[in-house]
Task: inverse folding
């Protein structure tokens, strides 16, 4: 990455190589197993050595947290479709060279995947959006894809009485509370600039209070009241925060399946966000919240105001949020879906031999 430090645009997340200093050590450390399940592997799994040294009889399931496994290094493509061919001239590197680092990574990934026998590598997408992106990609397009959403513990993330939650957290009872969660607001993909622009047009909204969770208090330059809670590592306390809010806003310009949205749904908190990625499947207009066109600040503001000013609608959506979380996103459902996939692919492997 050193040659691109001066050319990379600001506000981007990491750009990840396919190589790792661990080499083949990871495979040597694996215990005997029937299935290998990969998750977020950047900087940990060395593609070339991993796919060539994992026992050929062992199927691999790869759950995708983002797009990086099938791109030349970016974790979200941000509108660039070069991953559908062979990358190169990467806008996230600030490069115009067709044979830049992104093309080199793409070639190494292609060659590493060529060593994988047919039917041995299975991709798990968390939603239809990611499944579509996988099928569009030049690296993963021919691999079997299964959709298994993330789940969460709905006995921990559950609704609490709003008055009780606010009293416990020291938040005002009469406030109209909008919740925002992000560990860092420096990543432009998180959409904090769009959120602040939306809130800037709500100065006259009575009792409006932005509550935020994250490593550093986000810089609020408008006259909106702001109550930063910092980092919260206790899930029960986090559920109290969601319960204290009137709505949760996720202004991401691109995202996969944000855990924060799942947490909000399980706590019965309606969600407002942009119509992008997996957010579009979690936020169901009129049921669990409202969506705005990506980047449309005015529409985002209107959706926030609509929910704040319609308590009956919020109550209906709150019940829908919890019901959908229980029906579709419980942790035990996620586990069962993986068990069914493991059984299917191990049976297929035995039949193939």
Result:
């Amino acid at each position: 990455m050193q040659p691109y430090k001066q050319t990379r645009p600001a506000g981007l997340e990491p750009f990840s190589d396919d190589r790792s200093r661990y080499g083949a050590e990871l495979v040597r450390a694996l215990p005997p197993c029937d299935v290998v399940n990969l998750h977020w592997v950047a900087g940990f799994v060395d593609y070339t050595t991993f796919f060539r040294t994992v026992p050929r009889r062992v199927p691999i399931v790869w759950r995708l947290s983002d797009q990086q496994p099938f791109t030349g290094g970016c974790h979200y493509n941000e509108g660039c479709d070069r991953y559908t061919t062979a990358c190169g001239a990467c806008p996230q590197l600030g490069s115009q060279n067709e044979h830049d680092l992104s093309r080199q990574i793409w070639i190494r990934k292609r060659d590493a995947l060529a060593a994988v026998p047919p039917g041995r590598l299975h991709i798990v997408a968390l939603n239809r959006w990611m499944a579509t992106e996988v099928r569009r990609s030049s690296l993963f397009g021919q691999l079997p894809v299964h959709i298994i959403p993330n789940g969460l513990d709905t006995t921990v993330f559950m609704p609490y009485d709003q008055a009780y939650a606010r009293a416990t957290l020291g938040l005002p009872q009469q406030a109209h509370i909008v919740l925002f969660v992000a560990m860092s607001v420096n990543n432009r993909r998180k959409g904090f600039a769009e959120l602040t622009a939306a809130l800037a047009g709500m100065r006259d909204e009575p009792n409006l209070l932005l509550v935020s969770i994250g490593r550093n208090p986000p810089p609020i330059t408008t006259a909106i009241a702001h109550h930063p809670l910092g980092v919260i590592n206790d899930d029960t306390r986090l559920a109290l925060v969601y319960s204290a809010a009137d709505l949760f806003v996720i202004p991401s310009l691109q995202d996969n399946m944000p855990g924060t949205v799942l947490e909000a749904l399980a706590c019965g908190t309606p969600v407002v966000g942009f119509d992008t990625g997996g957010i579009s499947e979690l936020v169901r207009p009129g049921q669990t919240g409202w969506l705005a066109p990506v980047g449309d600040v005015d529409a985002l503001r209107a959706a926030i105001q609509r929910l704040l000013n319609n308590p009956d609608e919020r109550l209906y959506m709150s019940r829908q949020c919890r019901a959908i979380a229980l029906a579709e996103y419980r942790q035990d459902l996620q586990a069962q879906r993986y068990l069914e996939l493991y059984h299917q692919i191990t049976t297929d492997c035995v039949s193939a031999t």
About this structure: Residues 2-151+332-352 form one domain.
